[in-house]
Automatic annotation (TrEMBL):
<dbReference type="GO" id="GO:0048472">
    <property type="term" value="F:threonine-phosphate decarboxylase activity"/>
</dbReference>
<keyword id="KW-1003">Cell membrane</keyword>
<comment type="pathway">
    <text>Cofactor biosynthesis; adenosylcobalamin biosynthesis.</text>
</comment>
<keyword id="KW-1133">Transmembrane helix</keyword>
<dbReference type="InterPro" id="IPR004485">
    <property type="entry name" value="Cobalamin_biosynth_CobD/CbiB"/>
</dbReference>
<comment type="function">
    <text>Converts cobyric acid to cobinamide by the addition of aminopropanol on the F carboxylic group.</text>
</comment>
<keyword id="KW-0436">Ligase</keyword>
<dbReference type="GO" id="GO:0016874">
    <property type="term" value="F:ligase activity"/>
</dbReference>
<protein>
    <recommendedName>
        <fullName>Cobalamin biosynthesis protein CobD</fullName>
    </recommendedName>
</protein>
<dbReference type="GO" id="GO:0009236">
    <property type="term" value="P:cobalamin biosynthetic process"/>
</dbReference>
<keyword id="KW-0169">Cobalamin biosynthesis</keyword>
<keyword id="KW-0472">Membrane</keyword>
<dbReference type="GO" id="GO:0015420">
    <property type="term" value="F:ABC-type vitamin B12 transporter activity"/>
</dbReference>
<dbReference type="Pfam" id="PF03186">
    <property type="entry name" value="CobD_Cbib"/>
</dbReference>
<dbReference type="GO" id="GO:0005886">
    <property type="term" value="C:plasma membrane"/>
</dbReference>
<comment type="similarity">
    <text>Belongs to the CobD/CbiB family.</text>
</comment>
<keyword id="KW-0812">Transmembrane</keyword>
């Protein structure tokens, strides 16, 4: 029945767009903001408390609903958690605007993908930001929910989605959140560890099919470890190899510029690279979805 639930959630993500209003993740974000105002202190202990107070009630509610209707709740929570279709639609929009030379329009889509400052990006910078974000978010917003649905159904899907959302809100290495966001950031890294390597493995398989498998393996082994994120590194390095481009370099955020390591070898990304990244994301999601269904069916 879990295999059926995962299949249903995948189909729902393809057929039905994310609700523009009353999205459960948005409600969770509001809840997290309220608890942050009440609990914020510049300490890791306060951050741990915030994490528990914010996530635990939602996780317990998911566990209770799952005990009553496991198939329905797993399908519903997976649909809510999956962001793969929305991600690829935004990627297509970026590629279309870049190809048409509409840089300003392309910039408006950048915040949908990442937190970089779009006004500081030229067409090459937008293409690189989109390519890197599509690769990383494929792991976070598609492969990780599928993995956790196969492992534990609705409760684990909800825990991962909540922690991942919380990390996006407070998991920054800056003056305000370096201590307070430590718990959310590290737990998110832990929950994403296996899904990220599953994503990188699928990227490597796709690279091998196109004759770039050895470069994907090399980039994973030699380049990924220099990335500040233990999970984004393997995902982006193998995606770069599969796409035949080089990622990394100066990365402009509202708070300043960070120097990211060079990942793989090749030319800079272009609008065509963004389209190829969308295709790679779809193939990766399809393969991971099949694996999740087969794994759940085998367990059943």
């Amino acid at each position: 029945m879990r295999a059926l639930a995962i299949g249903t959630g995948l189909v729902a993500d393809r057929v039905f767009a994310d609700p523009e209003q009353h999205h459960p993740v948005a409600y969770f974000g509001t809840w997290a903001t309220v608890t942050e105002r009440l609990l914020y202190r510049d300490s890791t202990a306060a951050g741990v408390t915030h994490l528990l107070v914010t996530v635990a009630p939602v996780a317990l509610a998911a566990q209770w609903l799952h005990s009553k209707a496991p198939t329905l709740t797993t399908a519903a929570t997976l649909w809510i958690a999956l962001g793969g279709s929305s991600l690829t639609r935004v990627g297509e929009q970026v590629a279309t605007e870049l190809s048409a030379g509409h840089i300003e329009r392309a910039r408006t889509w950048v915040p949908w993908l990442c937190s970089r400052d779009p006004q500081q990006l030229d067409d090459a910078g937008i293409a690189r930001a989109a390519t890197e974000s599509i690769a990383e978010n494929t792991s976070d917003a598609a492969i990780a929910p599928l993995f956790w649905a196969a492992v534990g159904g609705a409760p684990t899907v909800v825990v991962h989605r909540c922690v991942n959302t919380l990390d996006a809100m407070v998991g920054y290495r800056n003056e305000r959140y370096n201590n307070f966001g430590w718990a959310a950031a590290n737990l998110d890294d832990l929950l994403a560890y296996v899904p990220a390597r599953l994503t990188a493995g699928i990227h490597t398989l796709c690279a091998a099919i196109s004759g770039r498998g050895s470069e994907a393996v090399r980039a994973w082994k030699e380049d990924a470890s220099a990335h500040p994120s233990p999970n984004a590194g393997p995902v982006e390095a193998t995606a770069a190899a599969a796409l035949g481009v080089q990622l990394g370099g100066p990365t402009i955020y509202p708070h300043g510029t960070e120097q990211r390591p060079r990942l793989s070898r090749g030319p800079k990304p272009t609008a065509d690279t963004v389209r190829a990244a969308v295709r790679l994301a779809r193939r990766t999601q399809l393969i991971a979805g099949v694996l999740a269904v087969l794994f759940s069916a085998q367990r059943g």
